[in-house]
Model the fold of this input.
Amino acid sequence: MCRLSAISSTEYSSVMEAIIALDTMKEGHDGSGLGVTLKDLGGEFANLKKYPIFSGICTDAGRRKLDDYMEHRGFAVKFKWEPKITEGPGINVSRRGHYLATVYQYPDAYRDRPQADKEELLLGAHQDLRRCGADDESIYAFSLWPDVITLKEVGDPLEVGRFFGFEEKPLTARVVLAQGRQSTNYAIQLYACHPFFLQGYCTMTNGENTAFVPNRHFLTSRGFIGYTGYDSDSEIFCHTLHYVHHQLGYPLPYYKDVATPLKDCEFAARPDGAVLGLLKRSLRQLCIDGPNCSIGFLPDGAVFLFQDSKKLRPGIVGGGPGKYGLMSEECGLEQLLPRRQRQSDIIPMRYDLVIISPGAQEVKVWNQRNGSITTVN
Amino acid sequence: MESAQRLDHNGELTLLEFPFIIRWREDRCSRCGRCTAVCPTRAIEPSVMAQRLVYSDGNNSLPATIRRVSQVVRQVNDIARHCVGCATCSLVCPNMAIMPEYNPNHKFLFHKNQGGIPYARGGRRNDATTSTLDKLKFTRISMITTPSLDAGRHEFHLRTLMGRNLPPEALPLELADGLLRPRAGGVIPPVREIFPIRIGGMSIGALSPPMWEGLAMGVAYLNEVENIPVVMCSGEGGLPPRLLRSRYLKYFIPQIASGYFGWDEIIHALPEMIEDPAAIEIKYGQGAKPGDGGLLMAYKVLKLIAKIRGVPMYVDLASPPTHQTKYSIEEAVTKMIQSVSMAWGFRVPVYPKIAGTKTALAVLNNLTRNPYAAALTIDGEDGATGAAYHVSLDKMGHPIASNLRDCYLALVKQGKQNELPLFAAGGVGKEANLAANAAALILLGASGVDIGRYIMQAAAECYGDERNRCNLCNLGRCPRGITTQDPRLYRRLDADRVAERVVDVFKTAEIELKKVFAPMGRSTQLPIGMSDGLGVADPAIAERLQISYVC
Done:
């Protein structure tokens, strides 16, 4: 089972905090990989927030392809970052190539274009890069988006963290998502490693999504170029979030109504009960059938966690204004925030959607059953 | 040697030409006459036989002969009265003295065209080999990666949608204060949530009164008592006038077909209907006899049937192969669906049923552009019928599995797989594996399935099989009383007992569906199109259906 570790904080948090929390949950993952996605970056990236960052892995040939492509599209390099790779005893991670986070200036023609145009440009470029590096595995393109970095590698999460040199020089961010282990049931490969990112939306999930194929068919038939990949059944969660929130324009709670719909007999207790049946029917094939716990963030920096009714061991959210942890296991939270008010911990159940507001000053629990919102602190 | 003239039996057949040969045990027979009385084809008859016996007894050991005449049960060798193997004779025999035996070397079809009349029958295609549906296995079993669900205790939602599901972008919704709400003036097509196994169209007329009544009672009981929302199609021939005006109409799907039989009664009942029907099915084709119309032969058109259908008694009721008032697919499908929808104020899903065919995709493409089309039912070649020419039954048609799969994948390509539900029919439960066949079709992309012959076999002990046993449905001489209008025959069938068995069948199917879906981890929604759950040990089938090859 995958293990999930997320931080939402007002100050910048080190990616290593999330990785160490993940390590405490080691009993629950097999150490077959680590993926991290960071949003609202600190350190050298703190003043580059409006510029798109390509993050991924390239071989030498891939790097040349990347440079050529970006130059051809009119992107200009603004800042380059590479992790200080640490190899040696105790780190069983094979170096695959160059691990990159390169900040670009938008092409001149796009600088004053609307945000939607820029988003379309970045998505198209991301897809192109992924495609052109796929056959020879010369490029792994994880994300191309402003103020977001995604890194992934196969190996024990803690060792991968050390491999990236995060112990000495960690990346920092206000939102950190880290996931250990790769996808269930499908081959171990980097694109199957969570978190999954699409146009500002990101999720990581544990558990098997048994409705994967119908979910995938529905998404790929929407005619949106970003709905591709699916090396993991968990990529569904990210794209469904994108579809519901970005494409359909529904508020976040409806994402839960789509993925884990209420029973028909429960609609009446919701103030918007009249529309829930319609959503359930029209989006029937995006219903996941669990058991899953999913953590993600939205483009505005809100971080959320929810799970379905079959998830027998719930995730946990704890902390206080300024820093919250969202974990798949309590021990991870214990590691991250040992001095938190434990009585305020939230152990969400099937109806709960926990939302940390952008800036990490408030945590709310939206109850799917009656639509109520409880502000915990 | 006898002269050739005396042995010349030109035109006569030996019993070895017949598909079933009667095995009669003289030593057991009490000559009660029950077997010959019940034989639906008069294939056996009481007869006498002159016997010459040689015997010796007493002290005189010299053999003597006697001649005696004994009463026997004899199988006639008249092709018009061939034994159909129904075994009703065995059923009524008190001494187990008689039994038909299948003759695999028969030459029946060489001769069953006397008078230039092709062989017609009921039933389904005579193909006793394992169907594609029965070759499919459920191979995606969650155990370690995700615990299997407990089929007995977990909560399952085994329901499907019958009706046009709007794509989310087309839903008439608006956002106010962070909440979605219906937009005033928006139109939402009618959608019914039903059990994914329906009873397909079998008409009053084709079925006897107790059979149809038994099915209807069973369906009503399943809905009202067992909370299993099974719906049933009327077939072409209308519905009983009282049912049309009852609250139970909501469990029925009146069918309109090319003969429009029964629709005068239905239209006249419209103002008095207190419930809308579950849906309306427009039949364009039938898997058992593609390109052929319905046929109710004259001797089944008795008083009740004539009244419901609005026709004189004792006339052949042949529906044309197509709707004669229509010209093109746009009229035949689009306008007709729209007209029928309008008759019920657009409150009732209206969908067409077609025979499995290579042209199914053309119909489907038309339907995707017709916002009033609520679904599509595709009836494969293993579907059954009450009456058809043997050649149509055996040689015409398209298997359901690949036809359904093609249509589903075509919808996926268009992104409309959730908008237009597909229902699959034709051979579901052919080998008695109802739930497994239904589940396989659902995983291939069907929203639900129809059954016909299966329910006759399971609920009313229909004798028919794929070795042409019985299959007398067309003649009105059904020895079980299922497909006859002859009171002497249909009194053999107890409607209450049929209803009980209908309930048994669906309760069982529900449990078995859970047993299939639970190990796959599916319980919240029906796993429509979850083709990764299927495998087959035949690489050609795997490739054609785009599922896993397993061996």
In short: The interface with chain A takes residues 142, 145-147, 149, 157, 161, 165-169, 171, 173, 175, 178-182, 188, 191, 193, 412-418, 520-525, 527-532 of chain B (CB under 8 Å).
